[in-house]
Design a protein that fits this description.
The protein has about 450 residues and is α/β, with parallel strands linked by helices. It has three domains: about 260 residues, Aminopeptidase (3-Layer(aba) Sandwich), CATH 3.40.630.10; about 90 residues, Domain of unknown function DUF2172 (Glucose Oxidase, domain 1, 3-Layer(bba) Sandwich); about 80 residues, Winged helix-like DNA-binding domain superfamily/Winged helix DNA-binding domain (Arc Repressor Mutant, subunit A), CATH 1.10.10.10. About 30% of the residues lie in helices and about 25% in strands. The protein has 13 helices and 19 strands. It has an eight-stranded mixed sheet, sandwiched between helices. A hairpin with a 2-residue loop joins strand 2 and strand 3. It is elongated and about 95 Å long. Bound molecules: zinc ion. Zinc ion (ZN) binds next to loops.
Length: about 450
């Protein structure tokens, strides 16, 4: 029995083979460290440089969409680039320096070089009084403005004097840049993996998702998956809107999808369901988290969060959920300078990576079968399918798996459905189905 279960099936996609997740987790962490210093935004050179670095691992296609391009109800904004920014006190000492932390600048700040009083300057300063050592992350993409972010302690030290304020930035016609990587599988049906690339020096929110997607793509390109995979490395919101606008005719190929973000912190795994709520991806992630032996949380869809908002807008309603550890806004370091290289750890990246592999393993191997002997139970004993020694727990589970599969293989239930109904792990259901297939008790159906 056991040897039959272990027999390699030619029709199976082995997602988990030849992989050293520990090794990959250190590579993910290294990639995060390499990307951390760059000042990313929704457009500009920091974003391009980020995609260049990812390209050293996977051959991304780079797309440049010009400023002014209409994408549904939105317009591609002007491209923003920044070279320098500082605040100097009356002695000419730099008290805030962009080169020390790119979070010091409100992202998309317009060019300015002026002298002003503390009073006037304060209208453009942002701090976190509750976390006086941390620098907040702020943006002003769609309203032309400028500002500095600093720790509250720094603000308290500012004297009532005249300051020199300089932001050497440009906001000009240019491009919105995104990266795309397509892996051709055995069938044209696609699995979409999307991550946002627009946050500057923030590790968990942004870089952990980027790193996981990069190494997941690299791994999948080395095996021969059944599904085709499409990886998107896009600026948040405007990136997914742009991609959907440009690819509207082919989105029906997407059968499953995940937005991946905040996957490197110590928090428990969270999964936000797709708008459909009961899509195969929703069931697969739920099954993996349930069987992980760890605490987890499944969240219903809501129209707030990451790019699942766009993929799950009613005009698309794609089966795309959001895979995270600590969700946005729920951990104190979120959108602050404390979302740094200490918050993210290789062990948590490894755990997130393994869970995603298990999800894809289910999706890749989920099939529908037809019982070839549907009138009453087939006699399993005469085929040698009942163990000689009854009563052992594993044996009992295998026998229950056989009975469940035979009973529910009516063309309406997938293996994942059967796993859910029987409360038996997908892996056991899959291996048992392979055995029943070998004994001609099942036939694959679509
Ligand atoms: Zn964010």
């Amino acid at each position: 029995m056991t040897n039959l279960f272990n027999k390699h099936m030619q029709n199976a996609t082995e997602i988990n083979t030849n992989i050293n997740v520990n090794d990959i987790s250190h590579k993910m962490y290294q990639l995060i460290s390499d990307l951390y210093p760059l000042c990313r935004s929704i457009t500009g050179d920091g974003l391009r440089k980020t995609l260049d670095i990812i390209q050293k691992n996977i051959p991304l296609s780079i797309h440049d969409i010009p400023t002014g391009t209409e994408v549904f109800d939105w317009t591609i904004p002007k491209e923003w680039n920044i070279r320098d920014a500082f605040i100097k006190n009356s002695q000419g000492e730099k008290i805030i320096d962009f080169h020390e932390s790119n979070l010091h600048i409100v992202n998309y700040s317009i060019n300015i070089h002026e002298k002003m009083s503390l009073q006037d300057l304060k209208a453009h300063l942002f701090t976190l009084p509750d976390r006086p050592d941390w620098i907040p992350y702020r943006t002003s993409y769609y309203k032309e403005n400028w500002g500095f972010c600093l720790s509250h302690n720094q603000l308290l030290e500012l004297k009532d004097e005249v300051y020199e304020v300089c932001i050497d930035s440009s906001l000009e016609n240019g491009y919105l840049t995104y990266g795309e990587y397509y892996i051709r599988g055995k069938k044209p049906d696609e699995i979409l993996i999307s991550c946002h690339t627009c946050h500057p020096s923030l590790c968990n929110d942004n870089l952990s998702g980027l790193a996981l997607a990069t190494f997941l793509a690299k791994h999948l390109s080395q095996i021969s998956p059944s599904y085709s995979y499409r990886f998107l490395f896009i600026p948040g919101t405007i990136g997914s809107i742009t991609w959907l606008a440009l690819n509207e005719v082919s989105v029906n190929k997407i059968k499953h999808g995940l937005v991946v973000t905040c996957v490197g912190d110590s928090g428990k795994s969270h999964y936000k369901k797709s708008r459909q709520g009961n899509a195969e991806i929703d069931k697969a992630v739920t099954q993996v988290l349930k069987n992980s032996g760890q605490d987890y949380e499944i969240m219903e869809f809501s129209p707030y969060g990451y790019d699942e908002r766009q993929f799950c807008s009613p005009g698309f309603n794609l089966p795309v959920g959001c895979f995270m550890r600590s969700p946005h806004g729920t951990y104190p370091q979120y959108h602050t300078s404390a979302d740094n290289l200490d918050l993210v750890k290789p062990q948590y990246l490894a755990d997130s990576f393994s869970k995603l592999l298990s999800v894809l393993d289910i999706i890749e191997n989920d099939k529908k079968y037809l019982n070839q002997n549907p009138k009453c139970e087939p006699q399993l004993g005469k085929r040698g399918l009942y163990s000689a020694i009854g009563g052992q727990t594993d044996t009992k589970k295998s026998e229950m798996a056989m009975l469940w599969i035979l009973n529910l293989s009516d063309g309406n239930h997938t293996l994942l459905d059967i796993s859910e109904k029987s409360s038996l792990e997908f892996d056991l259901i899959k291996k048992t189905a392979d055995t029943l297939l070998q004994f001609n008790l099942l036939k694959e159906t679509t």
